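Notes, p. 3: input format for complexes.
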Amino acid sequence: MAGGPYRGRLAPSPTGAQHVGNARTYLIAWLAARAASGRLVLRIEDIDSPRVKPGAAEQACAELRWLGLDWDEGPVVQTQRLPLYEVALRRLQAQELVYPCTCTRSDVERAASAPHAEHEGAVYPGTCAGRRAADAAALSGRPYAWRFRAGPAMPAFDDGFRGPTQVAPEESGGDFVVWKSAGTPAYQLAVVVDDADLGITEVIRGDDLVPSTPRQLLLYRALGLTPPRFAHVPLVVGPDGRRLAKRHGDTRLAALRSAGVKPEALLGLLAWSCGWLPRVEPVSARELVPLFRWATIPPRPFVLTPELLAAL
Ligand SMILES: [Zn+2]
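Output follows (312 residues plus zinc ion):
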């Protein structure tokens, strides 16, 4: 656990539009920091370059401001920090904790027999694990990624919201990519390097990222870094229980804004969904600071119905 004053972060990814679900997670992260009289860093997670949409980072910043969620430092932009990630990769190479992997995504899926989680991909079957870091030099011309030797046991952790958490091996196990064949760091490595470098003491994010956390804890250990506390909050889903999508109506913040929805109305809905208000009523982010409690946030996803959306 990291000590010292509270430091949190807001980390939008400019790969798509921000929607009501993102806003709820940002609100919780912002309130946790403000209630602790802590500091917040804004970080733009833009290393997934093929999927980054032009203007999306600026738009995410504008939408945070619209909601009244401010920050004290940043924006810190991942694509401007590549040398930091390269240093971390070299440290992992020097310890033989990573090896060059020439498998394509379909190679891995074909070779893996276990069923796999939708977002994490198949458990890597170890095809290239016999290589050493220096073997990369002999792969001239062949694209390769760097894969981390995860070992048999994925660390459990004490989640700030969920309590003790252990992720099943088929969800988080297996050697994972820390550096893509495109020559850029993978999400897991970049966020670990960033959160450590920025002195983040608590990471609050959606619970779709729970399977990433054991991997990130392994990287903290391998790099000799102190992990933050992790708190994973439930997502916002549609009435069918699925993650918000087009079929649930237009829940993009940009669409709500242009339809004339007031930020206080959306904040009131989100605050009610977290148990901080007895009914949906307009409220500002500042007014919510003294009302913030972890204990009232329901452990289940928040179901955004068409009626709740229309009432905005
Ligand atoms: Zn491989």
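Residues 213 and 249 are 31 Å apart (CA to CA).
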